[in-house]
Design goal:
The protein contains eight helices and 21 strands. By secondary structure, the protein is α/β, with parallel strands linked by helices. The protein has two domains: about 100 residues, no CATH class; about 260 residues, Carbon-nitrogen hydrolase (Nitrilase/N-carbamoyl-D-aminoacid amidohydrolase). It is globular, with a radius of gyration of 21 Å.
Length: about 375
């Protein structure tokens, strides 16, 4: 199981060496993916120096797991290269540095065929206006409800998905990249909230299953539990496309900065979050979280919501938005149907990172972000 964990270290009590941080075999089990659940803050652990050993204390365990430390040398105060495990990947060059993105804020009904046809029309319109990357909303082919998910779910892997077939056809014929929002996916006896990414050749390049399920209970305002019907995804998703390296999250995933930080450390230019915030959380957090993720990671963030339907059982906030690498709002809309078209310029990422060089200022001696999925993949390759 993939996971991400932040280890908080005290520089006065924990001693690291380069060998230790290069995955010394004596502490390799610190990063076993089975130890930590998916990306939740409660999976964080602390490393505490005690004599010649290090205790790993998991908040869900009664007893710590003790390992022998291979290191004896005190880490220097500034170790930015050690703040990311494995080390962060430099921002890669993109096949294109400047292009147009379209955010298709669509109305959604109970008629699936209508929803698919409506999305087709929006994609064709956006491509006709020069968009090379198109982002659709979360759950655009189905009403957003636990009752609807099983009814509208499609088998993507079995090629029994009219929704993704349409996306594949259009990406190929229009020669564009499509981040296909999300749809309910059926796989065996499980249901997922799934985003499919199609390249300009029409091929499925990536599939992201929502990692953090939307389970909230705000008395008198909003109660919803996706976990009643949906299963959480197990891997972060980052994909190289004709318009750059893109990380994918779905709605509630945006609340977990660890996921965005992992995408940034993997060299993402852009993170796309199809999402359907509601009338309770939307006014408070929708814009705030987008700008925070963009500013923290110094990259572009794009979100796409369904249009608002006040007669729906779940009323979406709307306000699909593109945010730049300084946390600035580049383009947005209100709650009605709209196609937001704006320009992305990747050269601004390096410029902003020069202005505020976070990557060179992190304190690897005090804190670390562990990309467990990438770490395990490196070990097994």
């Amino acid at each position: 199981m993939a996971a991400a964990t932040i280890g908080m270290l005290s520089s006065s009590s924990v001693h690291y060496s380069n060998r230790f941080l290069n995955y010394h075999s004596s502490i390799s089990h610190l990063y076993r993916s089975s130890f930590c659940p998916i990306f939740h803050s409660h999976s964080a652990f602390c490393l505490v120096r005690q004599g010649n050993s290090i205790d790993k204390i998991n908040k869900n365990c009664v007893k710590p797991i003790r390992t022998v430390a291979a290191a004896t040398r005190m880490a220097s105060p500034f170790k930015p290269e050690e703040a990311r495990i494995p080390p962060a990947i430099p921002l890669p060059s993109s096949p294109i540095s400047k292009f147009k993105i379209a955010l298709c804020q669509l109305s959604v009904t109970s008629d699936k065929e209508r929803n698919i046809a409506h999305a087709r029309e929006a994609i064709e319109e956006a491509a006709g206006k020069g968009a090379q990357l198109i982002l659709l909303p979360e759950i655009w082919n189905s009403p957003y409800s636990n009752d609807s998910f099983p009814v509208y779910a499609e088998e993507i892997d079995a090629d029994k998905s009219p929704s993704t077939a349409m996306l594949s056809e259009l990406s190929r014929s229009l020669k564009i990249t499509i981040i296909g929002g999300s749809i309910p996916e059926r796989s065996g006896d499980r249901l997922y909230n799934t985003c499919c990414v199609f390249g300009a050749d029409g091929k499925l390049k990536a599939k992201h299953r929502k990692i953090h399920l939307f389970d909230i209970d705000i008395p008198g305002q909003m109660t919803f539990k996706e976990s009643k019907t949906l299963t959480a995804g197990e891997t972060p998703t980052i994909v190289d496309t004709d318009v750059g390296r893109i990380g994918i999250g779905i709605c509630y995933d945006i609340r977990f900065q660890e996921l965005a930080a992992i995408y940034a450390a993997r060299g993402a230019h852009l993170i796309c979050y199809p999402g359907a915030f509601n009338m309770t959380t939307g006014p408070l957090h929708w814009e705030l979280l987008q700008r925070a993720r963009a500013a923290d990671c110094q990259l572009y963030v794009a979100t796409c919501s369904p249009a608002r339907d006040n007669n729906s059982s779940y009323v979406a906030w709307g306000h699909s938005t593109l945010v730049g690498p300084f946390g600035e709002i580049i383009a947005t809309t209100e709650h009605d149907e709209a196609i937001v078209i704006s320009e992305i310029n990747y050269s601004l990422i390096e410029q902003r990172r020069t202005y505020l060089p976070f990557q060179k200022q992190r304190r690897g001696d005090l804190y670390q972000l562990v990309d467990v999925h990438r770490l395990n993949s490196t070990r097994t390759s």
